[in-house]
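Hello forum,

I keep getting stuck at the same step: I have a sequence, I want structure tokens, and every attempt I make locally crashes halfway through. Rather than fight my setup again tonight, could one of you with a working pipeline run this one for me? It's a single chain of 441 residues.
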Amino acid sequence: MSQLGCVASCRYLEVNSAWAFATLREVDGQLFRALEERCLSGSGCLLVDATPQQLANLTWAFATVGHGSEGELFELVAREARPKLGDFSMQGIANLVWAFATAGVDATELFQAVGDKLMSDGGRLLDRSPDAQIAFGVDLTAVLQSFRARGFTHPVMHWAQTEGLRQLGQHLDLTIVGSLSPAPRSLGTLPDMPEFVFNDEDRCVVLKPPGWQVDTEGDEEDFIEEAHSAREMLSGFMISTFSGMQLPILTDRRCKKGFLHRLDVPSSGLILAAKTYDAYFDLLGQLACGNISRDYVVMLHGFLAASRGIFQVSLDKDVGATWSAKSAVLESGGKASSTRLRVGGYVFAQQHQPLTIVAMRIDSGRRHQIRVQSAYAGHPTVTDRRYTVELVYDADARWCKRNFLHRFSLAFCDSEGAHQSARAALPTDLREVMWHVTPKE
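Reply #2:
Ran it on my machine without issues. Output:
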């Protein structure tokens, strides 16, 4: 094999090793230090001929495991990536930008170049296939979210929200046609049915009762608490409600069937959903740029200090929990998650068990974010089978039949740009729980 071939082969193996270990969330510090040294040797000559995919995979791997935040490796990657941005896939760009944002490395010049490229590519977006258009729109919002996380601003953010994403959605509404699938035969076997709190021509807010699943493709609950094993799919409710209307997004898994976010099966609360592609990408842009607020009321174990104003940790999938889709707090790497909170009051449950009622607003939307962060802080949510020990869960379940977590408020903009808000009072089952607690004197 030629010397050039050997170098290419070594680079391929090193990038693949980093990617494989990061995918498994295996943080071998010695291995990643060795990989970093190899990449940095000879002033980064191994990276000179690296392909765009290799550069994206390498930085994604190091950011995922939280290694290389000193910045030298990332600086070399940025230097090599900038002139090659035209050859990056859109997903590769999204992964590259996410990696730099997560690692906390200054990448102003790279981000500027990425923003310029996206502005240019957006002008040719409508010439692509619907699949490519949807993928571009989803990856574009991921880039916007990473920009926001680093406090970086670029004209592409305004363009995407006011023009690019709206044009994309409107074009998809004109080109994608289809009929709705028949509603599930067993719709409504649970005691409570969803209801609309806000219902506009192209978007709506649905109040999800406990036991109903927001069944976005690839993001389902893999394990359902025993009390909610008889679940219903919220997409079935949407299809049944709007049967006879041409709303193909309601069955389009590429766009999560129109749902903008999830809510855990045992929880109740408000869900924002789009009926058109125009609304979906408009709202997705709002979500990426932090213009949609989501507020919750939660009951936690223990007395949480009133001065505690935020939960801020890195989360990722718990790879040790092979039987369920759990999340775990990581000391390094992972996805940043932030939840602002305000203590509403202190109460006692049976046997003088101290509890705190808290209002929370999430700045990010990670799987089980509030439940994981609260448990990590030593104040798990009441009746949480996944993130408390069985003894605590069993004791809670005697007086609170399901997880005490309710999304009571959503704020967003409608199709005309006017601010809208939706609210939902505490549901009956959680109001009944309040009869089992007494305020702290």
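The chain has three domains: 2-155, 176-291, 292-440. If your local run keeps crashing, start a new thread with the error log.
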